Amino acid sequence: MRHGKYPLLAAFLLPPLALYGYFVVSPYAQSFLIAMTNWQGLSPAYEFVGFDNFKRIMGDEYVWNALLNNLWLLVLLPLLTIALGLFLATMLNVGGRGGRSTVTGVRGSALYKVIYFAPQMLSVSIVGVLWAEVYNPRSGLLNSALRAVGLDGLAKVWLGDPAYAFWAVLAVMVWANVGFYVVLFGAAMQSVPRDIYEAAALDGASRLTTLVRITVPLLWDTIQVAWVYLAILALDGFALIHVMTRGGPNFSTDVVGLRLYTEAFGDYKWGYASAIGVVMFFVTLSVTVLSLRLTRRERIEHS
Q1: CA 19 to CA 132: how far, in whole Å?
Q2: Helix axes 26-34, 270-294, angle to 10 degrees
Q3: pTM for the complete prediction?
């Protein structure tokens, strides 16, 4: 039986590994090769141009502008989403106070979790179309609400003004993702003994102190995973931005994924688009490794 273990493992593992290599690894390898050509996507004819596409990226102001927008998302999206998710999860799970300093969740917390999680059940395209209508300068819900309360001066062309478009899209990205992390952090908090929170309440610790000194250290592994996932999302952002703004106005919401799409399907420069994709592959990989290293800390155990 012991000698027959390895053939049995190979019989189960080799077919899925072969499929993964063919459908996942192989396209990645092909993109590296295409990045070295001037292929236009339709014609089978192409020329090998070496690193010319990568040299062109270095001087492409549109790519650098898109990368800068991605970097802003990389900083702001995880920070805002995790901070808001932790705050809401704390309020829902340990934000209430019962008799004799008993720590409980707020009343109706289960309903609130469903409401917060609801955007996760919508596809990205639906979220984009929905919020594009909310931001509509004439009939949108946001401007209509501002006018209804006498704040006409605050009504803006949210997605048509370069000064506001990026922040409007960022707000939608936070709204669309924060519910998932409220539920994720809430589930992680269930493993923390209530005695710890009750002891903090007896010592007179405020909710903010409890969040910073107790919840964050005990949930650090979960926060680290959330940060990596949101960082990857921030380096993408293609689908939502493509639906809402298509990178405008004046490229104020352009991101590298949309730049790649435009070069490939708009200008039919598949070689150059593949080079952009290769660059983003290494940027995403570097950001992921860096995030894991910077957020790594000694694990805090509780019993």
Answers
A1: 39
A2: 120
A3: 0.88
